[in-house]
Every structure is written in structure tokens, then in C-alpha cells.
Amino acid sequence: MNLYKRQVLLSNIGKTGQARLQESSVLIVGMGGLGCPVAQYLCAMGIGRLGLIDGDVVEASNLHRQILYGVNDIGQKKINVASRRLKKQNPFVCIEKYVTYLNHENAEDVIKKYDLVVDGSDNFYCRYLVNDACVLFKVPFISGAIDQFEGQLSVYNYGDGPCYRCLYPVPPLPGQVQNCERAGVLGVMPGIIGTILAMETVKVLLRLPEILSGQVLQIEALRMLFQSFRLKRRKECSSCGEQPAISNLQVSKELAAQVSVGSHCQGRRYRVLLQLST
């Protein structure tokens, strides 16, 4: 308990809250720019069981933002490097490794084992898969995205709150959205969004007030502007609506192969990010 005594002092946490964190389990999908700070803070705060899933290897271009890795780790599997670092940080946290990519074949077996999922994936196939699987298996999830000097995040499928398809019903067309490999990203941006993802994770696990469910938070770092807009659950949503079309992961897989143009505009005041997260 000496590891956690500063946060145990908080009236919203205390020994009961800390025990709840130690009994909780969180799956982090993608150990890139967002997954690294999320994993580090959740591990430090004493989440009992952390699942890490990613099949990628460390590259030199990752290092300015993926802070669990160093030059000597280039070419190694991210999951193996991350798990070693996290175990040194807090040996009392159980780290479960999945050295693979999340897909429609393994999603059910993996996601159903956890209380909450943090989506730090870098492709829309995985992001929509996380959404559909979490809705089907009644698991809340938190997802963030970054674009150059900006970022956004929200809590999805929490209680009666909306899911990701309520915000973006369908994926964008190929080439419609740039990822950070083409558009670039400031190294600190994943840290800003990632730490807020970790904060929302703790809030959900401890059932603290003002959880970002039904709200999308957007951050413009150059102007240091934080703003949010409300997101309502759509009755016609194909995933969480009153008559959902996605009744199983096979349907989700079939939809993943179909790309169509959706309405991504949320009004003139807000430029909703479609960029990928890492």
C-alpha cells in the first residue's frame, strides 16, 4: 500500500477504491503512442490486471512519442518490451501479453476477460471491431485519436451511453483520412490524450462522477483550447440502436469489408477528428 498511499488519501478513492482498482482488469488495444502512457499510469496506479495486445515491432520513427521504448528496442516486439518495463515499474500488477493483432477471430475470447477496454489502435478496422465487440459483450471502452497538434477522446458503451458508431456510423473512404505517417504528429500529443484516457479509465472503474460518456472532448494544443460537445445515442445505430444490425462479430466482419461514405459532420463549431490514434 505504500506504492499507492498518496492516492489512497483522496476522499474519492481511499482504501476501498484502491482495493477496487486492484480487483479490476483493463485491456489496452495497441501499444503505440496512446497505449504507452495509458499502460504506464494504470500500472503505476495499481490496476490489478493489465492486458496488452499488439503484434507490431518497435521502429525508430515510433520513439519520439511511444515513450516505453528506446533505441535499443528497435526491431523487438512492442508487447515484450512494454511488459518488461511495466513489471519493473510495478511488479504487483499482473501483465497479460497478446503478441498479435486484435481481429474478428480472437476479439471475443480476449475482450470478454476484461472489465474495460482502452482503444489505442491505429486503424479503423480495429477501432470499429473494438466498438462492435464491446457493445455485443457489454464492456465499456474508451477511445482517443490525435492529429498533428489536436486530439479527441470519449467514453463509449458506458451504461446507456452512445457507442463509437453513434459518432461515426461508417468508416471513411480509403484515402479520405491521413494517419500520422503522412500527416505528422507532435510527440507530446499522445501523452496528453493518453493520460486523460487513463484518468477516464479510473473514473469508470471507481464509478466517479462526470465521466465522459455522451461527450466528446477535443483539445487544440497550439491554442491550449479544450472544448466538448454532447453525443447522443442514436436509435438507428447499427451497433447499439433499438434494432441493431450487428448481432454478432461475423456481421461486424462483413461490414468491415464494406466502405461507404457517412456523415461525419458534427456542426460548424466543431471539427471532429477522423485521424488515427498513433
Summed up:
By secondary structure, this protein is α/β, with parallel strands linked by helices. It has helices at 5-8, 14-22, 35-45, 78-89, 107-111, 124-136, 164-167, 180-183, 189-206, 249-256; strands at residues 25-29, 49-53, 94-98, 116-119, 141-147, 150-156, 215-220, 225-230.
Explain what you see.
The protein is of the alpha/beta class. It has one domain: NAD(P)-binding Rossmann-like Domain (Rossmann fold), CATH 3.40.50.720. The protein has ten helices and eight strands. α3 links the parallel β1 and β2. α3 packs across α9 and α6 runs antiparallel to α10. The two termini are 34 Å apart.
Poorly predicted runs are 259-278
Broad structural category: alpha/beta
Question: Which strand order does the major sheet show?
Answer: 3-2-1-4-5-6-7-8
* Structural domains: how many: 1
Mean pLDDT figure: 89
CATH architecture: 3-Layer(aba) Sandwich
- The portion of residues assigned to helices is 25-40%
Write down the secondary-structure element order: HHEHEHEHEHEEHHHEEH
Number of helices: 10
Percent strand = 15-25%
E-strand count: 8
Overall CATH class: Alpha Beta
Report the CATH topology name. Rossmann fold
Amino-to-carboxy terminus distance: 34 Å
Shape: globular
- CA radius of gyration is 18 Å
> Which superfamily, in CATH terms, is the homologous superfamily?
NAD(P)-binding Rossmann-like Domain
What composes the largest sheet? 8 strands, mixed
